[in-house]
Each structure stands twice: as C-alpha cells, then as structure tokens.
Amino acid sequence: MKKLLLIFIAVLALSVISMATVEIEFWHAMGGGHGAALNEIVNSFNEANPDIVVKPIYVGNYGALSQKLLASAESGNLPAISQAYGNWTAKLIPRGVVQELNSFINNPDYGFTPEQWNAIWTPFKKMITWGDTVYAVPFNKSTYVLYYNTDAFELYGLTPPETMEDLFFDAMMLTEDKDGDGEIDQFGMGFRTTIDHFVVFLRANGGKIIEIGPNGEINVTINSPEAREALQFMYDMVHTYKIAYSQGGYLDGPFGDGKIMMFIETIASKPYVDKSSKGKHGWAWAPVPMWKTQAPPFAGTDLIMFSTISEEQKLAAWKFMKFLLSPEIQAYWSVKTGYMPAVKTALETPQWKEYVNQHPDAVVPINQIDKGSVDPNIAEWYEVRTIIGQMVGDVLNNKRTIDEGLAWAEAELKKLIAGE
Q1: Cα–Cα distance for residue pair 119/143, rounded to 1 Å
Q2: What is the pTM of this model?
C-alpha cells in the first residue's frame, strides 16, 4: 500500500508539473548547421526555464514557411512565434494576428531596459517597426560582402577591390583561358541573375526600386539612370568583356571549384563557401566595393509573436524572445552560424572577442552595419522582388535589352501598386 501511495504521489506531482508547464511552438526555416545551433539555444532556454517548453518546428525553406504562415492565418492554427520577413509581417498585420510588442518592450517588470533597447542596431529597429508600433524582434541578420580567392589574389599581386573600378580591373586581371582551348575557364567575377545581386549594385549607385512617400504612398523609381548604369555594369562584365560568369543559383560551388575568383553574397554563405573551398584554395571576404555610396543591403528574418495564443503563452514567448537577444546568446548564434549579432553588446562578450581574435575579418560585416540599407517593409515586396528578379534575369540572359527590361519592370510595378 505504501508503495502504491508513493507511485500515486509521484504521478500527481508529474501531472502538476505538466499542468504548470507552458508550451509554445516556434516555426522556423533554419536547416543544417544553422538549425542545429538553433536547437542548442532552444534546449539551453528550456533547461533554464523548466516552466516553459519551446518546441522548435522546422517547416522547410522560407517559401514553405511563408505559405504555411499565410494558410495558418486563415485557418486560425498559428504557432506562438515564427521567423518572418518584413513583407510577410506586413501582410499579416492587417489580419489582426500579429502581436504588437510595445506593451512588452515598455513593461517595467519584464520589458527592455533603455540599455537593452539601445543595444539593438538602429537599422534592425527600422526593419521591425511599422509607424510607432514594434511588431517583431531581429533574429538572423546578414549583410552582403565580397568573397575572394586569397590564393589567386596573392598569385596575381592584387588587393581586394575598394571601388567598383577596382572590382572591374581585378576581374579583368583574374579572367583566363587557362588550358588554351579558346574558352574562358577562370572568371574574375561571378553574378547571380537575381534581384539580390542587382540590388547590391543599384543601391551602391544611389538608386532605388521604389520609394515610400511621406503619407505611405509607393512611388516606382526603377526606371532611372542609376538602375540603367547598374544593369549596364553587370551586363558589360558578363557579355561585353566576358570577365564575369553568371547563373541563377548560388555561387559557392563555382567559387570553390576555381571557376570564379570573386562574388558578392551574404555572410550567411560563409559555411558553404568554407566547405566548397576546403583543400582547394584560401578565401576571405571584404566590404562591398564603393560606387557612389556604400549601402550593402541587409538580409534575414525577424521573429514575430501571434496574438492568437493565450496570455500565459505570450509571456513565455516574450521571455524566449528576450533570451534570444541577450548578448551571450547573440554572440553564440553569430559564431556558430556567421549571422551578425543583432545587439551591439554581443561584441563585448568574451566569446565574440575570442572569435574576432581568431577570425579578424569577422568585423567586416559589423563595420558595414551603419552603412547598410533596408528593404521597404511593405506587403507587396515579395511581388516586387519577383518582377525585378525576372527583369534582371531577362537582361543578363539577353531576352530583353536594358531599356526594355527597365520599362517593362516599371509598368509591371505600377500595375502591382495599383492593384491591377
């Protein structure tokens, strides 16, 4: 009887613990090594907070996550928190399912201190704010850098390009028909035929795809001299001078194989570049070269909370979101994945300082943060990206001239904005 009583008490205790535990789902698109690092962070939080269980759920790539979020917003089956790009959040806000965070941030008991709020980089704050309302916290943030083959640069006596003129010169010097068969097999530069690479050059040249007016109106500015110059620069390197290789997919493979000596991509590509180059050649990264200005775009998502969960779950989700933004976790996340720390205070942690000691070029993306440019956080941005991506691909693949491409993109964007 005594044994049965002990068993009963143990079962009762477990049921009380389980009743007191708050479970929250966290949907994300972090696979591979990034996903493993995220799981380690979640496990650390769960161990430190036995009354909360964060359940990370890998949904798939960003496209799959976007579709699942939009479908779940309709069905009412949303998680507690999720990764989201700004334009996803902008689409979800009017549906009333995204939790505003001002009331959490400003709460005197569990909100941010002024020091904690000020520690978030200013551009990242801009990306999570609509009007005066904060709807997200920054999560996996990256920026664009120039990857280059250090062995080749040493062999050819070159230094990393600081301007677009330097980039063109270095690409010209590095391009070779190495086996003498009349076909170039080593290109100085590599481009992706996508919006992302075009935007790097467009913003460096002082141009924009659209501009948001003082009353929130969207003005289409793609058909501009700056855009024409940026496209011409890319086109000439690929077709006129044949010193750049272009393709739609990621370029870490051609870079690792020695087909291209330089390419521009986000710092999130670091583990893939490292893997593809290992045992073949050295590599490093440098700032995006200067044109009229330096305005490397930011990439990556934020975390949003959904208003459809219980008040208990909201408090638990907020606690986890704050945990993710702590200096130590941000330093760990950055070292493990290559993403930038979302808070300045992470740079003061022993782990980050030791990492920079061993990898001095880790400061390159950090030094670009104040110069970086952000995407407009409008609901139509995904569709804008699709139109511009098609235009860039058409121009670089000789399906449209530069003037035809810009005129087409301008007309399509105006129809999109008008809701046609």
Answers
A1: 18
A2: 0.88
